[in-house]
Amino acid sequence: MAKFLTGNELNSELEKLFEKAEEHLILISPFIKLHDRYISTLRAKKDNPGLAITIVFGKNEEDMSKSMKQEDFNFFKEFPNIQIRYEKRLHAKYYANENVAILTSMNLYSYSQDNNIEAGVMTKTTFTGKLISNVTGENNLDSEALNYFNRVIDQSELLFQRTPQYESAMLGLTKKYKESTIEVDKLSDFFSNRTKYESKERNKSSFGTKKVEPIAQIKSFQSGYCIRTGKNIPFNPKRPMTDEAYQSWTKFKNEDYPEKFCHFSGESSNGETTYAKPILRKNWKKAKEIFDL
Asked: What is the pTM for the complete model shown?
């Protein structure tokens, strides 16, 4: 049964949701700046590679660093089994573990938790909701919410992923955790280069050069297109593909293989783009001006 939450009870139940997560933890919030008590609760999960954490943040397309602070990214990236994703249109807030979900107005932001009037609805059986719905024939609220936010996750841009690695033990009957490897990391470069990009933009503006809008490092996360699928991805001529398309490309690694789209404009390239030359010739000058190539 769903439960309506406000004020301190909402904060308390959210903290319990973090504390009791053992297999899955989903954190979907446009803005993330962790409260000290949530940091303390989550820190206890750092030694559990079996806990799969998925974070989606977004909303502030003018400056992504306003949606997630570097110190929070530095905290999250130490977890052994985690992915961090970005969706610029995100406004909903949803938090779930394997047993409980909270759909709420409250961002995962310390100011919101301490000062704002917030409310939420807590439901049970998050990851088994679909099974229960099939057995009882009921249209389960929790199942609908989980399915919806899984689609949000699938459509968001993967910016960071750290995955646990295991080795067989007990003659293959069990597996033993060895270490975690970083498979994707676009956030470290973003945070480490923000000052450089912002300084470059200020210098351009002061000399009367046409101003890039928004700032260059945000463009790099929002304005490219996969040359194989046409999907929106970070602009990066050295990696002009989605992660999935890149994995397919690496089977042969033919840098001159004709692709379908222009990495800069997203328009059909009719085979004139390749991994080595992902931008159509007619768009190169404009791309060079905007991205300072």
From this structure: 0.65
